[in-house]
Amino acid sequence: MQKTLQEIAEHIGAELKGEPQLAITAVSPLNKAQKGELSFISDKKYLNHVESSNASALIVNSAIAEQLSGNLLVMKDPYLGYAKVAQLFDTTPRPKQGVSSSATIAESAQLGANVTVDANAVIKDGAQIGDNAIIGAGVVVGEKVKIGANTLIYPNTVIYHAVEIGKDCIIHANAVIGSDGFGYANDKGVWVKIPQVGSVIVGDSVEIGAHTAIDRGALENTIIGTGVKLDNHIHIAHNVVIGDYTAIAGCTAIAGSTTIGKHCTIAGRVSIIGHLEICDKAHITATTFVNKSITEPGAYSSGTTFQSNKEWHKSAVRFRQLDEMWRKLKQLEKELGQLKDSREDKDE
Fold this sequence. Notes:
With about 350 residues, the chain is α/β, with parallel strands linked by helices. Helices cover about 20% and strands about 25% of the residues. Catalyzes the N-acylation of UDP-3-O-acylglucosamine using 3-hydroxyacyl-ACP as the acyl donor. Is involved in the biosynthesis of lipid A, a phosphorylated glycolipid that anchors the lipopolysaccharide to the outer membrane of the cell.
């Protein structure tokens, strides 16, 4: 595959400086790019790598463009430009179009135009698959599931009954959507299961990472908004609502009935307890433990950063001593106050 620099400029909305008919065959990192390949620079600190790079063209912003010559695509956000070019040159293989002879499809299931169903997939009663959707090998689509047009579901994903998935979604291998939420009542020490009769509603243009699990709601639905991006190994419990265009990194766990706003970012291994409200545009850093609602946009953090093992052991000892140290400090404050009062009395 190849595109001219002019075609790429038009696709990403960049100003072209250089040879319009230059053929580009791939997008590559600056230090790995070869002749005929395109790279990008989003920070001036990488300028010193340009001279040693073999890239035939670069995506840059206007400030960086002033310091360079050659074939340039100039735009406000070079990283966004890179993302759009990478889509043009995406080489991810797709299953051969059509329905595999080893797939099991219920008679009452409805398949749209140009649907692909790969080997050993199962589509159960009443399921509806939109036009141009791709159902990967070994995928299980439960009863009355709805999957929108152009959605891609990678192998061995399980979608439980009555789940709804929008159009233009990507669901990676071994994701589980619509499994039971963790709901039990205690009867004198014995756990009594609460049937989870809600579902999961996934909006359009959502991407769900490998091995991510999204529980169905207990009574109401678990909702994943439009444009949400979920990394691998995320757990989303029952009745959680995630607002549009929020992105969540791997190994994060969100307990039941928590609502997360729009345009939030949640980094890796964050823990969020249940029944909280997190406002729009909240940005939570890695390993943060969120135990109360967030009402103001901004960045939030908790936890400690790493130290050498020796330093960490010292810090752990001091942490255990904090209560005793606090009591001593309060006592010293009290004694200092008494001493001050005594001196003031003498001065009078």
